[in-house]
Amino acid sequence: MTDLAFLDATAQAELVRTGEVSPVELVDGAITRIEKLNPQLNAVIHERFERARSDAAGPLPDGPFRGVPILFKDLMCQVEGDPYHEGMRFLKNAGHRADHTDNLAQRYFDAGFVYLGRTNTPELGLVPTAEPDAYGATHNPWKSGITSGGSSGGSAAAVAGGMVPVAHANDGGGSIRIPASCCGLVGLKPTRGRSSLGPELNEISSFLIAEGCVSRSVRDTAAVLDAISGPFPGDPTQAPRPDRPYRDEVGADPGRLRIGLLTHNPIGSSEIDPECVTAAKSTAELLESLGHQVEDSYPGGFDNEDLVAEFGAVWAVECAYALDEWGRKVGRAVTADDVELLTWGLAEAGRSVTAPQLLAALASSQQASREAARWWADGFDLLLTPTLGEPPVEHGAFASTPENPIGGFIRSAAFVPFTAQFNISGQPAISLPLHWTPEGLPVGIQLVAGFGREDVLIRVAAQLETARPWADRIPPTHA
Amino acid sequence: MDDLASLDATAQADLVRRGEATPLELVEAAARRIEKLQPELNALTTNRIDRALDDARTDELADGPFRGVPCLIKDLACTMAGEPAHEGTRVLKESGNTADVDSNLTRRFKAAGLVVLGRTNTPEFGIMPTTEPASYGPTHNPWDLTRTPGGSSGGSGAAVAAGLVPFAHASDGGGSIRIPAACCGLVGLKTSRGRVSVGPAGGELRYPLGVQFALTRTVRDAAALLDAVAGPEPGDPVTPATPARAYRELMDVAPPPLRIGVMTTMPGTTDPIHPDCVAATEATAATLESLGHHVEVAHPAAFDEDERISAFIPLWSTKAAYDVRMVSDMVERSLGANDFEPLTWALAVRGRDVSAVDYELALAAMQVWCRRFMQWWTDGWDLLLTSTLGEPPVELGVLSTPDEPFRGFARGGTFTPYSPAMNQTGQPAISLPLAQNDEGLPIGVHLAADAGRDDLLLQIAAQLEIAQPWSDRRPPVHA
Lengths: 479, 479
Description:
CATH superfamily of chain A: Amidase signature (AS) domain
Radius of gyration of chain B: 21 Å
Number of domains of chain A: 1
Radius of gyration of chain A: 20 Å
Strand order of the largest sheet of chain B: 1-3-2-4-6-5-10-11-9-7-8
CATH topology of chain A: Amidase signature (AS) enzymes
Strand order of the largest sheet of chain A: 1-3-2-6-8-7-12-13-11-9-10
Distance between the termini of chain B: 6 Å
Strand content of chain B: 5-15%
Largest sheet of chain A: 11 strands, mixed
Helix content of chain A: 25-40%
CATH architecture of chain A: Alpha-Beta Complex
Largest sheet of chain B: 11 strands, mixed
Order of helices and strands of chain B: HHEHEHHEHEHEEHEHEHHHHEHHEEH
Shape of chain B: globular
CATH topology of chain B: Amidase signature (AS) enzymes
Oligomer: heterodimer
Number of helices of chain B: 16
Number of strands of chain B: 11
């Protein structure tokens, strides 16, 4: 099956379009690969193979990805009637099922994708690794026992291992980019409001979150973005519309870009691993060789430790809110025994935050975003950083203890010093698999563009993909 | 009578462009009008006439579309460096607070060539639909000095209606552009969320209800001014799609036949709308039909649900608590009940105890309601037609009741039954001065369009302005 396994979604869709392969064959192939690999990877936690087969056999929407198999992360992107647990034992034990289909899932269906199941996520997506008590750890196809990143770690392991060409992912602090970096994938976090978070969530209260996918090719990421973007009625905000489809940016000349390079932790709270620094610096050299202007420079605004603390409060509030909501929906209050240590610790912290304190944190983050945006407005096109502060770590690295319930969260700060800033600002950012450690673990680099400028990211990402291709890099554990 | 007083900003700018008047002459004339009428109206809180005359004399006056045209800025949020920023509060008035920076919108006003002559009156923190702050006293309606000019942009409303300036800055978090437009016989466009930057101090994530724009006498001024000030500034957290062409170019283009729902009932109750307001709405419906539009009795069912305003108390009280805290920080002392008006303090006390989780809950419930409400436009309706207010402009002292603060606040609900909904959704809406009652008081008519369709509102407004012109109407108190 290897020949189909490592074709990207665009190529698989093309096979369907030309009649060389049927949707049922693509879906059967993906099911075979999942059945083979999942015992090793633990990427897929809910399977719906029989229904996927019947979906593939039935009339499929004539979208750009007609017949191509996909997996959805089990956090948002709900599908009515399917299990939906957000990595929580509480919901798993309650046998919870989604009571509606999210706008985003509808967009994936309209594009013609066939949905095979749901992928692993940490509880409420809180940590950058997919090791929930509820479903156990997802393994990195590049090395067992190593994190696949998080929170979209199940989706990333599935795509890297070749189960499916693309999988749904979302990013509220780095959760698309982090697993993309850990698994050697393309991970684009779009601009705030690019895709609807509805009907339940919205871009004002969940302003950190952007929906997207992890993929193996830039063209897949671009075409998926075309398929899932655009507003639904009642969305409180929408990202500026592009002039043309994103897939048309693949191969388009990016021009000569002015790029700032940042390879140290901007608040100075941790060292950056030399492999990550090397990844960014070698990408800088590659970009220069492609004619771009790279200089040591980065935006201000976020190099402020107080902001990090203040912003932790926003996360804590979201966590407390989520537990309250689930308690209401399931009909029984969530207790400390129902959730992981970190989840309860954060929720406790969140419950003590007042609304005016929340507004103050939002005001500070707004101020930081405005200051950072000035750097782009003053002439820089892109910021280049390592995606992570370290290569993928071992399982258990971000575990909390009863003595320090939010210890795992604090430990993860050194792993993810570069990503959450752009959830606050709402800017688009992409992780690209441009470097591997001597041990053979992927190390991603991150490029960040101005608000609404996914077009710039896709043009330069496609240029880098051509210059330093990664399509032939296959992990040891693969289909 | 000063001939310039009757000219709109577009006409005044044309005089300058053709060399028939100098900026200095326009500003001197406006200064004379202000000096003459301010004692009766109390529309301004502070003036900067001397500095405005200097601005008009200098070569540095920007060569924008409104070069040399005099205007005023409401003393709320839209700061001007070095000028008073009191937000209707006694505390900041007594401390002599001045702003450090020009707000983004002030910079755009200056870049358009406008000359700012002073700041206009507002209730404390803009909380009321009338303009009767303890700090600066009530602003009087030029149509009847015993009546309210509306609020919170009542100072701007009175100033423009009386001809002091052709337009003035205004802002709207629950109707505060549209209410004074209705009370004073003006055009009041509440722009789409994010259309005009509210930075650097403001941000739509912290306060999604509020927008900033202006009160004008003509539709073409609103269109041309929106062209001049719309568009994102670096770091704005939400930015709607930009229009395909300039708003002013739409003034000569009739809209296509539109499907318009008309509503003359009070949302959510069987309380009556005042017959003068019902008559204005019905007359406008007839005019719209005569213009070829399809009008029928219809409105979003969600408009009758309690959620249409359910978020206001938690959001406004939290904002009041936050504003009180900010003012305390500015004057560097702890502030109490004696420092603020009773309503402000009561709201702030309520708001400071709201938990962040409850605040998020209110915001989420509001968004779920917004989706139900906005579905109506997706279902095929273009515009919702109502009166702007539930009754003609009431007497001063009816809405502002310091002895029983919540009595007047609650009374505001029947005065402004329609306008707050569009602050929740972020959609644009406009109040047009299409009627007068038998007493000669202006009665505003309100049109709401789908998210981002400021263009459609300006088009239909231009069509109605021709069909049912109001430019000859002058209030008894006029320059």
